[in-house]
Amino acid sequence: MTETIVEGSVEKLKLRRAIEAARAALPEDERHAASVQIRESLLDRPWVQMAGLVACYWSVGAEPATHGLVFALWKHGATVMLPVLRPDDDLDWAVYDGPDTLAPGRFGIMEPVDARRGVDAIRTAALVIVPALAVDRSTGVRLGRGGGSYDRALARVGPNVPTVALLHEGELLDGVPAEAHDRAVRYAASPSGIVRVGTGNPVE
């Protein structure tokens, strides 16, 4: 078992480095266009439009940008929760109430200044949108940055709640190294559109 875990961790590290390098090489205009396409595809989905409480995140670096998506969901009337990173690397949640209600948190990541709702607040979300470096097309397992924060958060999400990982083009893969703690998502959203991944009954 130990050998399997170590091997999986090494393969993940290699894949993370490759994807992070590819993202860093993307021209800024290409990143922006990708983020707009993802945002518009999501906002066009009925199950996104009907979600009254959305758990999302504030993108950083070369991730597909979510700032416009968060703002649009909020303007359309949804309550949007953003994560607050705790000292134990689990995720607390607080409500976004416009761009002026954010402040730098741990590692400089922007977080709402609203009262914390606790780690279990994500259980009440009707839609969950998470970051990922890659997603396995057949299993839905996502590759994160290695901290396990979103795996813990996704473990609290109900089985019928749409969970979506945002990707750049080429990051929906035929295989992603997985370990026992890794959690799957139901959809992968990229500039090409939104793809149902893994198994189970689709939401749409």
TrEMBL record:
<feature type="binding site">
    <location>
        <position position="63"/>
    </location>
    <ligand>
        <name>substrate</name>
    </ligand>
</feature>
<keyword id="KW-0479">Metal-binding</keyword>
<keyword id="KW-0067">ATP-binding</keyword>
<dbReference type="InterPro" id="IPR037171">
    <property type="entry name" value="NagB/RpiA_transferase-like"/>
</dbReference>
<keyword id="KW-0460">Magnesium</keyword>
<dbReference type="InterPro" id="IPR002698">
    <property type="entry name" value="FTHF_cligase"/>
</dbReference>
<dbReference type="GO" id="GO:0046872">
    <property type="term" value="F:metal ion binding"/>
</dbReference>
<comment type="similarity">
    <text>Belongs to the 5-formyltetrahydrofolate cyclo-ligase family.</text>
</comment>
<dbReference type="InterPro" id="IPR024185">
    <property type="entry name" value="FTHF_cligase-like_sf"/>
</dbReference>
<keyword id="KW-0436">Ligase</keyword>
<dbReference type="Pfam" id="PF01812">
    <property type="entry name" value="5-FTHF_cyc-lig"/>
</dbReference>
<dbReference type="GO" id="GO:0035999">
    <property type="term" value="P:tetrahydrofolate interconversion"/>
</dbReference>
<feature type="binding site">
    <location>
        <begin position="12"/>
        <end position="16"/>
    </location>
    <ligand>
        <name>ATP</name>
    </ligand>
</feature>
<dbReference type="GO" id="GO:0005524">
    <property type="term" value="F:ATP binding"/>
</dbReference>
<dbReference type="GO" id="GO:0009396">
    <property type="term" value="P:folic acid-containing compound biosynthetic process"/>
</dbReference>
<protein>
    <recommendedName>
        <fullName>5-formyltetrahydrofolate cyclo-ligase</fullName>
        <ecNumber>6.3.3.2</ecNumber>
    </recommendedName>
</protein>
<feature type="binding site">
    <location>
        <begin position="142"/>
        <end position="150"/>
    </location>
    <ligand>
        <name>ATP</name>
    </ligand>
</feature>
<keyword id="KW-0547">Nucleotide-binding</keyword>
<dbReference type="GO" id="GO:0030272">
    <property type="term" value="F:5-formyltetrahydrofolate cyclo-ligase activity"/>
</dbReference>
